[in-house]
Predict the 3D structure of the following.
Amino acid sequence: MDFPSWMSAVQQRTETALEKLLPASTTIPARLHESMRYAALGGGKRVRPLLCHAAGEVFAAPADHLDRAACAVEMIHVYSLVHDDLPCMDDDVLRRGKPTCHVEYDEATALLVGDALQTQAFQVLAEDGADDPARRLAMVALLAHAAGSRGMAGGQAIDLASVGKTLALEELELMHIHKTGALIRAAVLLGAHCGKADQAAIDSLTHFANRAGLLFQVVDDILDAEASTATLGKTAGKDAAQGKPTYVNLLGVSRARAMAAELRDEAHASLAGFGDRAKRLHELTDFIVERSF
Amino acid sequence: MDFPSWMSAVQQRTETALEKLLPASTTIPARLHESMRYAALGGGKRVRPLLCHAAGEVFAAPADHLDRAACAVEMIHVYSLVHDDLPCMDDDVLRRGKPTCHVEYDEATALLVGDALQTQAFQVLAEDGADDPARRLAMVALLAHAAGSRGMAGGQAIDLASVGKTLALEELELMHIHKTGALIRAAVLLGAHCGKADQAAIDSLTHFANRAGLLFQVVDDILDAEASTATLGKTAGKDAAQGKPTYVNLLGVSRARAMAAELRDEAHASLAGFGDRAKRLHELTDFIVERSF
């Protein structure tokens, strides 16, 4: 299967799995469930599910286990978007080409949508009746660590504190390692756990995921600086307008691109030990970069 | 040990365990961790931890396992209070005798505090290195189900939709079974799981917890209608002022008290099979009622 077909197949099975794992919009309370589905379904590039499946394929993980892990990570990601778009955070009106959740519904509902999507992510991981409960439990702990105050939520807090400030490159990196890096790493490692990867493989993939996570952010900053709102499906140029530090602010576009190229090389190199089994991870890495070039 | 001493001992060990299980206020991002500790420490009656320990004692569960389960439930409870107090929800300024989290810090921080406390709850359950990972995993699923859109968060959504409406008694009960009942039931059942309770015992305790949960809410409504803000440590008379349906609105104080007495009897009766081992659960039931009489 060529890469675009593989990507499309994973995106489709993720959508199907999310539809199944989210409560029906007729289940009480109906408005909450309808708004959870509004936020989570029918949009997004599904980068984290793609990474989860690509990492799982290195170890021939069963696709249905990967679906649950991929959906759990995606639910955490969507919850963070819904809360991040709220008026007290980024106050954004457009997401994935649609009105943001609090615009389409209301602020209180969007707050609960994010809260309930986070809970649902842990429920999805915990209720996977698969073998090896000890490994499942480790996956819950891994996702919680990645999402919490020392991971994604912590990155949001660092982001809040950095508005209007000039950060050093190391500080910007610290923010992104938390804000986007932690969940991208979790996506990769959850996929590997579904395939019962050993510790040495987990270590290599951790290195890969750290490079891929930063790569993703640098490319995002380049896109945000250059693309139009219509192309992005979210408000473009927003970070710069809000005085948020970005790699483009700090380095300029040309050096940001050079940094992306270097991160890509490092990401590829960290996969060397897996040979052809890491084919999809290599392809995804290039795909992340090529969005911007 | 008499009941007040037991209660005080559990409250103290819960405080100690929460202090240990929450990230230090010096850990980056410091402001987020400081505000998580502000919201979670040094206040509250710790009703859910008390129920968790009392249920665990029926099965001689190890106290250190109970501490983790009790803290996980309490973190979920505190996150729900922090989000519930936000301007887009109840817009409250006083909680547990202190300024609410968004008043003391800011709205964005309070949003992240709630988000991160929820995550931390699942991390605490998942990282308990205790025996029997399958049971631990079931406990994660149980807590997630209780906290999510078909439990506590769903109850909040029903609550939002009911403001200014006249609910039938059944509808009010449906709301509370979700909003407060689900987490109280989880507190009891997590305690029982820590003691490796069998299914028959879990069934009896589920019945007990359902009665105790409603009892708690009816008593809360009576207190809210009658007590002063100073006594409660939160804004009194708020539900009625916001047009929220309460048992007192619907039944009047006298019939609400009769309902509480009936629920108390049913709660006691459901513990009959445990004999003296359920002593603390009996005492707690009476304590919940006597707050108001």
Chain B touches chain A through 52 residues (CB under 8 Å). The radius of gyration of chain B is 18 Å. Chain B is about 70% helix and 0% strand. Residues 3-285 of chain B form a domain with the Farnesyl Diphosphate Synthase fold (CATH 1.10.600.10).
